[in-house]
Amino acid sequence: MFSQADFADGIISGLMAHNPDAPQQFEPQLILNDLQAGRKTLEYILDNIRLCHSFTMAVAFITRSGVACLHQTLKEFGQRGGKGKILVSTYLNFSDPAAIRALSEFEGLQVCFVTEPNFHGKTYLFEHAEYAQIMVGSSNLTQNALGKNTEVNLGLCVQRNSSLYQQTKSQLDHWVSKAKGLSSDTLDAYEQAWKEAKGRVQWAPLSAVPEEIFSEVVQAVENPFSEDVLTPNEMQVPALENLRTVRLNGDSRSLIISATGTGKTVLSAFDVKQFGARRLLFVVHRLNIARKALSEFQRVFGESKSMGIYSAGDRLEENADFVFCTVQTINIDRHIQRFARDEFDYIIIDETHRAGASTYKKVLEYFEPQFLLGMTATPERTDGFDIFSLFNHSVAYEIRLQKAMEADLLAPFHYFGITDISVEGIPLDEKSDFERLVSSDRVEHVIKVINEYGCDSGVVRGLIFCSRVDEAHELSWAFNRRGFNTLAITGSDSENKREDAIRRLESTGDDKLDYLFTVDVFNEGVDIPQINQVIMLRPTSSAIIFVQQLGRGLRKAPGKEYVTVIDFIGNYQNNYLIPLALFGDSSYNKDRLRRLLGAGSSLIPGASSISFEKIARERVFAAIDSAKLNTKKALTEDFNLLRFRLGRVPVMMDFFQNESRDPYQFVDYADSMLAFTKMIDKETSVEPEHLKLLGYLSKHVCDGVRLEESVILEGIIGSSSIDFEFVKRRISAIAGFIT
Predict the structure, then answer these.
(1) CA 380/CA 385 separation, integer angstroms
(2) How far apart are CA 368 and CA 346, in angstroms?
(3) What digits encode the pLDDT tens for the residues 583-601?
(4) Which domains, ranges and CATH numbers included, belong to the chain?
(5) φ/ψ (deg, to 5) at 232
(6) What does the pLDDT look like over 219-239, one tens digit per residue?
(7) Are strands 322-326 and 280-284 parallel, antiparallel or unpaired?
(8) Complete edge-to-edge strand list for the sheet that includes strand 486-488
């Protein structure tokens, strides 16, 4: 509730003398993009749109990506009767006409062109019931400005009788009065000017453009990309150094864990080069991957090494320096025995999480390379097989999805959690029958949503993941009847059919496909950089699969600005996995999952954004509330995964240091970590009275929230005995008082 006293306290704290007890919402503040602090300019704007009854924004530049970041919140703002104005500068003809057109379609939103020369303002005014918020600074409505760039804005809370409010309101009203209203004619005229400006090649000296404008245009170029310049990227440089160190330490095998799209194959080529390999064997599970890997290696080595494919039914180029083979072929005795055991001094196993299969084990047991490298985005397996042991528990480098996004190695994504339709009044769930999954009502709902949220270029190239094969075929047929060009691709389709479908999806010709429907064929091992829309029409069965399917759209490509991800959320029990996968959180801590879900886009690295429809968000919260996350089966699975990685029994700190499950869940289940270890590892021995004491300390001291508990724990670790005087002295030294 607003009060004059609170408002005054906030202003005094922000401008005169800081008061930690003052209401922060009334303090003047810098609005920045700071991932470590969990802050984004985007969230400040979205929070104000959600709470205000009207707003006016005046900006120099708008892009489709900026509109995508705001889409869900602007939609809900209009639905509740809000009124907004957005003024767009025509200066330099930079703003995307498609973005302006998309803005004009939101209910309650008025869009105008500011045509005066050199308009470069970025001013935001949000009108709340009893006060207003003003933001002025450097941020335009582009995804990078709202989430990634080093931007500086000042946010101010003002009352309507203040001179600052009146000046800001007067200036915005003046710009509105001078602006040109948006109509089909004005938009068409601007689009023509935009196309002409985009098509011109200008060789004017940089001094011809004002410095502040030039720097902003450079910042707004959101996807610099050069396919031909091959130098190690931000992930590859430390990974190469770590691989060199691994070998210097005497290890002959190691594992690289790297998110899809971060350049694992090129990394391996750089390492083969730094190793000085004479002969290489690169093992994959699909022929198309072997061909792609060969192509990537040629970019690194040029013609200095001969390279060939070894795959039955295609080519058997066994004499090449570097041999790229399918595991299905090399696993056959007559093929593997054509090579000496020490034929290859460097062997790479791609998609190493598959290496538990007998086909891979045969290859690993037969060959004796000087160095063995495994590469995967997801080494975790749920079948109990220890992949890490195949590589002596050596992980040379690891970069998961969130770190890869932070390093700008992947295309940004804009995720929309959409409420899946209820058929005949019943929400879809895991038990929904075929007729409900493919009903005409659902098809129309899906088409309406994917058209509304669109894609970066306006030319869609999408993957649609379904829960069943028959559903994929039926939905593809239904889409085609409604004017789309789609195919369903399943596990029964040949390699040639899959490759042709991918070619058509990326085509610019008459045979271009809009969508490929599938179940799990494209979860991994496929490279389709041009994908700009990923649609999820299935319940989330695991966080790993969710990330795999999301990752299909994250590879960068020339001209690709972002990927649109639309997740149709039914009444599914596993909806709690959505924030776990999106934020890369493996703690399975319910309070943390709720906080992540409530944080919106502020904790997502880079220019990506996350938004949910109201009912969809409620379904995810409900799933978190009802989920049983600390069953013995789930705890044992995560315990073993970490044990496999470490090559030993993990202790509590290992779970924190490896960003794994919250270790206190083991304490809640078994009274202590050691007691849980004893439950699943019968060889663990401990005296009953020691186990009882450990249980007490684990429950009441280790997870303490008071200073005394931390001091007691410190004393126990550092000394054989402690007393109350020790506790008092330490608290006094730390806090300056005695509790």
Answers:
(1) 9
(2) 9
(3) 999 999 999 999 999 998 9
(4) 32-199+212-220 (3.30.870.10), 240-405 (3.40.50.300), 411-626 (3.40.50.300), 645-735 (no CATH)
(5) -55, 135
(6) 444 444 444 547 888 789 999
(7) parallel
(8) 486-488, 515-518, 462-465, 533-536, 563-569, 413-419, 609-612
